Amino acid sequence: MTKVAFVGLGVMGYPMAGHLKNGGHEVTVYNRTAATAEKWVAEYGGGSAPTPRQAVEGVEIAFSCVGNDDDLRAVVLGEDGILAGLGSGKIFVDHTTASADVARELYALGEERGIAVIDGPVSGGQAGAENGVLTVMCGGDQAPFDIAQPVIDAYARACTLMGPIGSGQLTKMVNQICIAGLVQGLSEGMNFGQKAGLDMDLVIDVISKGAAQSWQMDNRATNMCAGKFDYGFAVDWMRKDMAISLAEAKNNGARLPVAALVDQFYAQVQARGGKRWDTSSLMHLLAND
Q: Which residue numbers in the chain have pLDDT < 50?
């Protein structure tokens, strides 16, 4: 259907690229650890390349999903980077959760080469990537988005153009800010119920049918009460996202008192050895004070 490349085969990128291949697209992958790329090719077919530039040569759309701003620049810029390999008239979609500033920077560089750049951070976590039901928040121009969206649909249940370049990253910041406050509130509620001696399974069943219901309650509350955190969206990743959000808030004047406080709670979770625990591990601070 479409010749594409995917750069970055982490816990998100690996299944996302797999959905592209299973969706009938011709896929070439690149990963910093070559063994991971070889494993992906053995599982899905397609091809791999030794550099991002070689991976994207001749493709219509290049995708990336890496760790942070610096990782993104490392695979996009330079003589072996994505922009050096993509031709004029092609599209680059970045799914990294990064800053709006780096999105704008890459957009400007792409514009110089005739390459359309779209920032498209995702929500839904590893499970969403594996099941192909991610929510994708995009920033960029309408025409290239219209071309890329049907391809992105291979791993998304929703893909929306939020506005000009950087709008996807800003929307993801809103998403993470909301999650931070919500998970802290849920943790306090669950801990309060346990301290009060309530049957928490019954409590969760009842209040999840009312105004307190949320995705976090439906998918995390039971494990929170059981003290199970060794899965899901890692605290390290959440702190990276919160740092981006807090930095942007300084630029735009938004006040984030709760988000800043919760970020410090996550720092305490890290200090307890919970760097890879799920974000719901805020409960651990309350249940084990």
A: none
